[in-house]
Design brief:
The protein has 188 residues and is mainly α. The protein is built from nine helices and no strands. Helix content is 72%, strand content 0%.
Length: 188
């Protein structure tokens, strides 16, 4: 049967964004329920697609999870790179790192959960570790635009370490501590 005017063999309109909606819904389900709660059924429901779309677009849940975390890590890396690229001198680079921590790491509980879900997978699975390794590589390269290699690695570790503390510590911290830590690490 030839495609009809509606754009598909069955007469239904094509849904070119369906795959992307599924990936986005996967991230939302993970943010709400963790990787353990991310089933095909829950993700299909969140995406507003038939359950059969899951196996049509992805070979299995692992492929979907990997693509979702790849999208997430690329998005975070791009925002990180933009912040660092906007810095024009040492002081603005320090301020950019502080903003990354205060606004991006501390500001969004959803991204904090997604990051830690990815870290857990990466601790066990090489395919996910490749995602986190690429993410760290991009972060360090962005930092190295303004800081030497060793300082960039320390700043990257500070950012990741503070994200862990943010996720696990019940005690509120003074946001000014972030600026103090960045200043100490980047002292010339």
């Amino acid at each position: 049967m030839a495609p009809d005017a509606a754009g598909s063999r069955s007469g239904r309109k094509n849904d070119p964004d369906r795959r992307d909606r599924i990936i986005d819904a996967c991230l939302e389900v993970i943010a709400e329920s963790g990787v353990a709660g991310a089933s095909h059924r829950r993700i299909a429901e969140a995406a507003g697609v038939p359950l059969g779309s899951m196996t049509y677009h992805f070979d299995g849940i692992d492929e979907l999870l990997h693509e979702a975390f790849a999208r997430f890590s690329h998005t975070i890396s791009a925002r990180f790179e933009e912040r660092m690229a906007a810095a024009s001198d040492l002081d603005s680079a320090r301020a950019a790192v502080v903003d990354i921590i205060r606004e991006d790491v501390f500001g969004d509980g959803r991204e904090l959960v997604l990051s830690h879900e990815l870290y857990t997978l990466a601790a066990r699975e090489p395919a996910y570790r490749a995602l986190t390794t690429a993410w760290m590589r991009r972060s360090r390269a962005a930092l190295e635009r303004h800081f030497d290699r060793d300082t960039a690695r320390l700043l990257d570790a500070l950012i990741e370490g503070l994200s862990i503390h943010r996720a696990l510590d019940d005690e509120e911290r003074d946001p000014e501590e972030v600026a103090i830590a960045v200043a100490r690490i980047t002292a010339v």
